[in-house]
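Bumping my old thread because nobody answered last time. Still need a sequence for this structure:
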């Protein structure tokens, strides 16, 4: 979906200062039941109070344009990535697919792999992190505690250092749970904040206001065919990721 099509679908007011140039839909996998895309940093997955055009609406318009569908198009949001995070997002084209995929995520039957760039290598280089997270809704931040407190949620992930070069470090993260800001705050607890993530201790922003956290891979059971599907997304084509491209 190029910028000319985007302009025809949304008003200038919607697009002005709200739609990154990189927001053209990058489809990784598609069939009659699901749509998997590589979300660019800066794009919302689902609409919020900002009124910015979310990925779910871009996906609806993509389907309407490609298949010349009149009227409304169903597009269910199965899971979300934080706005500054890039990578694999799974969407459902039917309510049946949405229900079945939601259940997989609820039961932690999916396989998620994230890549993060940090300015400091984790010590130790491989490990498992378990915290209890408390969300501050007013500040939209999460705090990682070392013991359970009332209202906290258990968060677990494993991580491993894949590569170090140029003073930057590629860390692969495999979350067991899916809590808000989980990877960001848990890596920060290792004194390894993600590049550009000012909210959790990074010293400086990225030029495009992204953070260097990328949903690299998602594995799940197809909601209709019952076969296992694995989809990978290449990291963003920006300078900081260049030494770490697969």
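Sorry it took so long. Here it is:
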């Amino acid at each position: 979906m190029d910028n000319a099509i985007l302009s025809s679908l949304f008003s200038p007011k919607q697009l002005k200062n709200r739609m990154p140039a990189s927001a053209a839909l990058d489809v990784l996998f598609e069939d009659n039941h699901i749509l998997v895309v590589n979300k660019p940093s800066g794009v919302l997955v689902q609409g919020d109070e900002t009124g910015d055009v979310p990925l779910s609406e871009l996906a609806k318009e993509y389907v309407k344009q490609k298949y010349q569908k009149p009227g409304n198009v169903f597009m269910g949001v199965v899971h979300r990535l934080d706005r500054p995070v890039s990578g694999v997002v799974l969407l459902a084209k039917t309510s049946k697919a949405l229900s079945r995929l939601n259940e997989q995520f609820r039961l932690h039957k999916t396989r998620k792999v994230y890549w993060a760039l940090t300015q400091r290598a984790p010590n130790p280089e491989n490990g498992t992190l378990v915290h209890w997270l408390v969300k501050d809704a007013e500040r939209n931040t999460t705090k990682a505690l070392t013991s359970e407190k009332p209202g906290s949620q258990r968060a677990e992930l494993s991580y491993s250092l894949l590569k170090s070069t140029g003073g930057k470090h590629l860390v692969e993260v495999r979350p067991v749970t899916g809590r808000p800001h989980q990877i960001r705050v848990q890596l920060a607890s290792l004194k390894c904040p993600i590049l550009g993530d000012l909210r959790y201790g990074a010293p400086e922003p990225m030029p495009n206001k992204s953070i260097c956290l990328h949903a690299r891979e998602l594995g799940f059971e197809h909601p209709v065919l019952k076969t296992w599907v694995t989809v990978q997304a290449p990291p963003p084509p920006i300078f900081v990721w260049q030494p770490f491209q697969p």
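Confidence is low (pLDDT under 50) at residues 1-23. Let me know if any region looks off to you.
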